[in-house]
Amino acid sequence: MKALQKLGIALFCLALAFFSFLPFIGQYTLTAELVKSNVKDIHQEQMVEILEPMYGETYASNFAFIADFNSYFNTYNDALKANQEWDAVIWDNYAYALTKAAAESPVIDQPWLHIGITLILGSLGALLYILPLYKGKLPGIKHDGIYFSSMKSRGLLGIFTGTWLILFYVILYWYPEYLTNLVLMVDPISMAISGNPASQWFLYGLIYTLAILVMGVRMFKKYKGNPYQLLRTASVMFFQLAFAFLLPEILMLFNMPWHDFKNIWPLDYSFFYDYRLDGMISSGALGMFMLIWGIILIVIAVPLLTYFYGKRWYCSWVCGCGGLAETLGDPYRQLSDKSLKAWKVERYLIHGVLVFAVVMTGITLTNYFMEFELLGQATNQLHSIYGFAIGSAFAGVIGTGFYPLMGNRVWCRFGCPLAAYLGLVQRFKSRFRITTNGGQCISCGNCSTYCEMGIDVRWYAQRGQNIVRSSCVGCGVCASVCPRGVLKLENGEEEGRINDLPIIIGNKSITIKN
Amino acid sequence: MNKSPYVIIGNGIAGITCARHIRKYDSDASILVISGESEHFFSRTALMYIYMGHMQYQHTKPYEDWFWEKNRIELKKTWITSIDTTKQQLISDTGEKIPYGTLIIATGSKPLTIGWPGEDLKGVQGLYSLQDLENMEDNTQGIQRGVIVGGGLIGIEMAEMLKSRGIEVTFLVREKNFWDTVLPTEEAELINRHIRAHDVDLRLGTELAEIISNGNGNVSAVKTNTGEEIPCQFVGLTIGVTPNISLLKNHPDIQSNRGVLVDKYFQTNIEGVYAIGDCAEFTESPGPNRKTIEQVWYTGRMHGETLAYNLTHEEKVSYKPGIWFNSAKFFDLEYQTYGHVPNNIPATLDTFHWENEAGTVAIRFVYDKTVGTIKGINSIGWRMRHAYFDKAIDEGWLFEKILTHLDKASFDAEFATKHTAAVIQAYNTIKKRNVSLPKKGFLKRIVTAFS
User: Fold this and answer.
1) Same structural domain for residues B161 and B226?
2) Which key words are in the record (chain B) (predicted)?
3) Is residue B116 part of a domain?
4) Which of A148, A83, A115, A90 is nearest to A18 (CA)?
5) pLDDT at B115 over 50
6) If residue A361 lies in a helix (H) or strand (E), which one and from where to where?
């Protein structure tokens, strides 16, 4: 490794350390005014009273502040719950908003300095490492030493990275009040794009996009001379930056609902929730377009494009989850489980989630069109179960946190209901397949090892059989790593696509089917 | 005579394919596969990737471990030391006696050596088995330079393996160009250049004279036939492989020459004893331009398929391989061949060779001089469709017609650079012909009109 690359790694680690440390600096002072301006009108009176003991006190850390807040707030609610005064209980979570409001931190005074030593330094460090990669090397497969790498083969570094990611997701989803400094830090960026202060979701989107862009550059280096890989990497980088990050924020600038035009139900599981529908319907022509476009994607685009190109048009060219998996997650693709057992688990899980999403949406819509007479607000319970278990725990914590432990497509493979829907079309009505090149397979196992979806590609290739599997996201890496030119992603005639009884070419002694 | 139990010595591609296919045709047969090398079948061709850190041993196993029990193929890890053909039993190195009804010898190859001085020193080895790989791991710890002797497929793999660990490589090739006993000069020269582009010190026309010890039994240098001494800590001997039939040394009742002698049904001179794969030697060549010893993955597989069929069917079929095909990878360059492409093109055949400017893609056609039918093709850096050329060569398609269909015949990934037009233009110029370019589709014409 060159000195410059070592410096890059050092800078990145430094930036990561700053980023992990920043949430815990600064002090916190709460006033009645701050409480009033940050809670709903109906809660103002109680909240001001509940938190009264905290006014004027300066907390040296967010731990102390949040501990006190929770103690007063829970005492109040617990008493009501004990008396079964459910209507008086305050169900809203104000911990995040009030911690953010009470913060007095250097990141507020000097946000750009702190952005500089975290996000910018981290990106620069990563790029310093990435840009000289494979310099002077000929185009080809760059997998030397992967299984000697602690980071890439579940060694200590990999476990550490996984743990960090899991912790980050747990805090982001369920304890965002501990991240307020980081959110305050990126306020100026959010203000510049959408005119609104940042939320934890803006912070997350920003880091997510940065990760895809920086690690996308790594893909360009790694797959030099491989047009398919270069094009699809450029595609996911574009869709993340333009459609998932910038456009929704710009919509906010024009007082439109936040909307990601490339996200599709049921991955976008809240698309048919009442507040989303109301938001779109009340946003004029553009809002109506959002609604109609969203429905067109589900009903027409998914089946049609998947028929012509396979699910790859979405999963490895457009999708944001796929985008992160194919860039940040690429170093971990070999860690997916290829066993038959894992495939069995996969089929139950992913189709289970699809059924859950469809049933939940069905109930939600029925309730919505019956003007909430069917179930009242009870669908919210269902939404929070799905949001917690699938939207947050599965897609986020497990989906990304487990990259260094179970490979980069854990969510896409085991959980994503849209992937399940696309997969059903791909399996049963599509022109896409991975063609096996006659009898050229030598069973080496590179294809299976580097399949991020855990498909045992070799099983088919060595029998001379085409690969037609619902889970294949068409990343094309099996074809790239094959040393004998055996695999090719193709869209072609449906006839002959699935050859259940293949004949391996080359042996004229036996003419019966193999 | 009771055929079962079928006992197979050797769990490589030939032996395992045979076992699987016997089970496919006969659900009752008792099948035992014996190997001293490994518990389970693994892909020998993938050994290099374990050394390079692309894969771990477990990834090279084409079937999960439960597969064998589920298919009732019994596995035994032991070395067989002798065969008693009268009592129909095998004796293992632990003295265990294993009875057989049908014996299938599929013991593969071993590295060929020719008695160089110093070839038994520590740090000197070939590469064929799992044990060889373990030795190589051991022999190359912390070393600066390795010398590879022999310009063939295993030699170039070994060079790539060492380079992946940052070890300098000197590559001694006896011939004028790399693997030019198989490749025509242009292809061999292209590979020469590619090897050098990977910073390998390639010495063409150079032979090994002796291997020099450091005094402690380790290799410290090699001396070439020009008298030059090259300091090194490792020597890879890769001048070829030879059938691994040391098992038969004490058993003159099973006839052997270089390999175990078999007829076109893989039957040895003793009833109920067969040999397949690298270790078998046909008494008669199985077809025109075919060798009597076939030592590639694909032929091992075909031997296994064919013998299994014969063992389980009344009507026997003789081994009739179809159109020859093979493939390899030289560092980053893939090579495929279909049909008959000799290194020296005989007078009855004509040939057309094309190479791109960067020297990373090349294609050669060999065709009949008078009627123009295709005989064979070599391609480097350009994947070709096996099914297409199998049919084209078998049915004797006109070579010039294939030229215009190259996009169809190509197996390159989507969006890859297309070479058809360049190939046809070069052909027309060199051979003074007038083959027209394939017609573009309507959409393509529009796109190119604007670009």
Assistant:
1) yes
2) FAD, Flavoprotein
3) no
4) A115
5) yes
6) helix A340-369
Q: Is the distance from CB of B23 to CB of B29 less than 8 angstroms?
A: yes
Say which of A149, A231, A446 has its CB closest to residue B55. A446
Please state the domain count of chain A.
3
How confident is the model over A164-200, as pLDDT tens digits? 999 999 999 999 999 999 999 999 999 999 999 999 9
Q: Is A451 exposed, middle or buried (0-12, 13-18, 19+ CB in 10 A)?
A: buried
Average pLDDT over residues A102-117: 96
Question: What interface predicted TM-score (ipTM) does this complex get?
Answer: 0.95
pTM for this model (two decimals): 0.95
- Collect contacts of A344-353 with beta carbons under 8 A, ≥24 apart: A345/A414, A346/A413, A346/A414, A346/A454, A346/A471, A349/A414, A349/A415, A350/A413, A350/A414, A350/A415, A350/A416, A350/A417, A350/A419, A350/A420, A350/A423, A350/A471, A351/A420, A353/A390, A353/A394, A353/A415, A353/A416, A353/A417, A353/A420
Co-location of B299 and B352 in the same domain: no
Total domains present in chain B:
3
Strand partners, B368: B349
| Contact yes or no for B175/B199 (Cβ under 8 A) | no
pLDDT the model gives residue A374: 77
In the numeric block, the tokens 């809002």 are attached to A287
pLDDT at residue A148 greater than cutoff 80: yes
Shared domain check, A424 and A470: no
- In a shared domain, residues A346 and A200: yes
Query: Do B106 and B254 share a structural domain?
Result: yes
Check whether residue B227 and residue B133 sit in a common domain. Answer: yes
Residue B439 is part of a domain; what is its CATH number?
3.30.390.30
Mean pLDDT within A270-297: 95
CA A183 remoteness from chain centre: 19
Chain B: give the shortest CA distance to residue A165, in Å: 25
Q: Please choose, from the candidates B361, B365, B339, the residue with its C-alpha nearest in 3D space to the C-alpha of residue B353.
A: B365
H or E, element range at A191: helix A187-194
Reported as a single tens digit per residue, the pLDDT across A2-38 is 899 999 999 999 999 999 999 999 999 999 999 999 9
CB atoms within 10 A of CB A104: 12
Asked if pLDDT for residue A243 goes beyond 60, the answer is: yes
Phi/psi at B113 (5° precision): -130, 155
Please, what is the average pLDDT of chain B?
Answer: 95
Query: Do residue B198 and residue B161 come from a single domain?
Result: yes
Written as six digits, the tokens of B162 are: 């060492």
Provide, as residue numbers in chain B, all residues whose Cβ is less than 8 Å from the Cβ of A445.
Answer: 43, 46, 49, 55, 59-62
Element (DSSP H or E) covering residue B443: helix B442-450
Which of A138, A442, A509 is nearest residue B317 as measured by Cβ atoms? A509
- Closest partner residue to A439 among B198, B298, B413, by Cβ? B298
Mutate to test the interface with A, among B67, B264, B298, B331 (most CBs of A within 10 A): B298
Alpha carbons A167 and A165: distance in angstroms, whole number:
5
* Contact (CB<8Å) A438/B386: yes
Looking at residue A514, what is its pLDDT?
40
Q: What is the pLDDT of residue B158?
A: 98
Q: Confirm if B87 and B81 have CB atoms less than 8 A apart.
A: no
Q: How far is CA A386 from CA A202, A395, A412, A493, in A?
A: 22, 11, 16, 39
Contact between A144 and A152 under an 8 Å Cβ cutoff? The reply is: no
Phi, psi for residue B353 in degrees, rounded to 5: -125, 135
Whether residue B119 is contained in a domain is answered as no
Same domain, B307 and B330: no
Q: Which of B163, B383, B391, B412 to mutate to test the interface with A (most CBs of A within 10 A)?
A: B383
Residue A502 three-state SS: coil
Q: Is residue B318 part of a domain?
A: no
Percent of chain A with pLDDT over 70: 99
**Residues of chain B found within 8 Å of residue A139, distances taken between Cβ atoms:** 332
